[in-house]
Amino acid sequence: MLCLMPASSSRSSSPIDTRTEKTSIARRKPDNGNETLSALMLPNYYFALPVKPRLAISERLNLAAKLTTIIPLRLGYYIARLVFFALRNRFNARFYLTCAGVRMAFMSLSARQLQHVSMTAKQTYEAWLQQKAKTDGDGDDADQERLVHDIQPLEPVDASILWVGNRRKANKFVLFFHGGGFISPPLAGHFEWCWNAYVQSGVEQGVEVAVAFLQYTLSPGARFPTQLRQAAAALGALLDAGVQPADIVIGGDSAGGNLTMQLLGHLLHPHEDARRIDLAEPLAAAFLVSPWLGCNTTSRSFRENENNDMLSKAIMEKLCTEYFGGAEGASHAAAGGNAWAAPLDGDQNWLQGVDNLVPNIYVTVGKREVLADHGVGLVQALRRLSALGNIRLEESEGEAHDFILLEGQANKAGDATKRMKDWFKSVVVAG
């Protein structure tokens, strides 16, 4: 059971203990050791070699072969198809170009290969901070304090919190779980999104907000329930530091939305492998962007959007197989055998009581994404099972999967970011 420490009675100061790794950002450039693949995929993505995991010789040869054959062919095909779709429908062609790059990467590379050519979460965090300090922090002492390199280890579970914002002064907190199918590390766009939608929204409302960005272990290095164990440890760390549940918003995108529901499911039905947490009061709110909530790929949105999204039936089946440790594990989840990580595939009464944990939930999906029915299905289930009236669902025309992330990658606070900001400001004001 969790022992809650009393939070500060004053909302002007933060209860967070800052005795962790915290330094100013050195002016150093990220190691871009694979510019070829970076150029092939999409703008603003960071890549580096060497990074963990180290590939065997056979994996390296396979990757080299893909770089000269299947990757350029697939990329050209996906670009032609998705950009034509966007232009024909007057959607954002640049974002659908990015969708083509993501789809190519997930279809062509193994999880280990994808991680091998990608920067780690820590590297991307440091590179983003370095760039952000140059563009947004100059001349603004408060923003400089919000852009301090601050990593909090969660040693018992081999994870870390990468802080965005000034947690020494914050009185509202966002516990953020990044997407990437549990196989891809976070992108710079994730940190940009957190900065624009949460930290800066707080500034605009006169509230200091800090984002606890969880660096969790990726598959195949670790599978369920490792990430749930790490998410519970992160929430526990905030509570142990004296943060009140009512000052915490949790959420994430895609697989991060999945992890959000895993954590809520754990609070309702404690998993034996994760730290048990008994909240003294509800959390402030939760958000799920393009959430991935099951292994079933037969819904209408899969059929209608299969050819026009960054994700596909084949990709989602691959990710499920990877995350659940093989075809048998994925089949077990799809049959309702894992309500924490696949809550829509089994008895949805499992979700009964979510309204006692969080009074305000925001779910957003793109109408053109294969996972659209996951977000819609979750909202329908929650509305049926609870008296919670403050459930907001947004289905965005013209958007495929996770467009708020693509806005972050483009360093643009676009429509998806503005909608998130509007919702988050209402949460901050209500709190």
UniProtKB/TrEMBL annotation:
Gene Ontology MF term list: hydrolase activity
SUPFAM superfamilies linked: alpha/beta-Hydrolases (SSF53474)
Bias kind Basic and acidic residues: ranges: 18-31
Region of interest: Disordered: 1-31
Residue ranges occupied by any Alpha/beta hydrolase fold-3 domain in the UniProt entry: 174-404
Keywords: Hydrolase
UniProt KW Hydrolase keyword: yes
Protein name: Alpha/beta hydrolase fold-3 domain-containing protein
Organism listed in the record: Tolypocladium ophioglossoides (strain CBS 100239) (Snaketongue truffleclub)
